Amino acid sequence: MNQVPFIAVEGAIGAGKTTLASMLAAELDMPLLKEIVEENPFMERFYQNLDEWSFQLEMFFLCNRYKQLGDTESKLIRQGQPVVSDYHIYKNLIFSERTLKGREREKYRQIYHVLTDDLAKPDIIVYIKASLETLLARIAKRGRSFEQDMDHAYLEQLIEDYESAMSSLAVTEPETTIITVDGDSTDFVADPEHFAHIVSQVKSRISSGHPR
């Protein structure tokens, strides 16, 4: 692992990534890096017409996350400052592989690798694995208007895509520890013991200096 930990929290839409990342950052006294979501000007149009707006949406996310992570790497990580992020840059491929097709998908893959291959990668990924029922309940609770009519089939496919992505990252980024949280049975917001268990796992990986 790096001398200072770079922790990313991941999971499908509605899993609770930002909530858990914020809680971990506060508990571990680390800066929090939050992705831009609602500020994406293509978001509502994307949910209304996926084929028409997918490329614009994905490029906006990619460029903004690239800038965020690049700044974080130079200003914090290289200066010895641990960081908690509510995303891993790899999520761009997870989503774009599903939303883009043909030449647009291939162009996006090329741009993704040019921008991200030399970015710092997380030492620890806290992966919140949750069922469709749990995700839908949390999406409804947070009340983002553009998410309320989300296609359930799209969300179910995203759950499978995240499972495949975590398996892939375990192979392609073997230096990264993946801590899986059962989002169906774990309520890290309402139950202090559940959150304490996650914190304990993270601290154990940090103190050991050995990702596995």
UniProtKB/TrEMBL annotation:
Keywords: Kinase, Transferase
SUPFAM superfamilies: P-loop containing nucleoside triphosphate hydrolases
CDD domains: dNK
Deoxynucleoside kinase domain ranges (all copies): 7-206
The keyword Methyltransferase belongs to this UniProt entry's keyword annotation: no
A molecular function (GO) term: kinase activity
InterPro entries xref list: DCK/DGK, Deoxyribonucleoside_kinase, DNK_dom, P-loop_NTPase
Database matches in PANTHER family: DEOXYGUANOSINE KINASE (PTHR10513:SF46), DEOXYNUCLEOSIDE KINASE (PTHR10513)
Protein name: Deoxyguanosine kinase
Organism lineage string: Bacteria, Bacillati, Bacillota, Bacilli, Bacillales
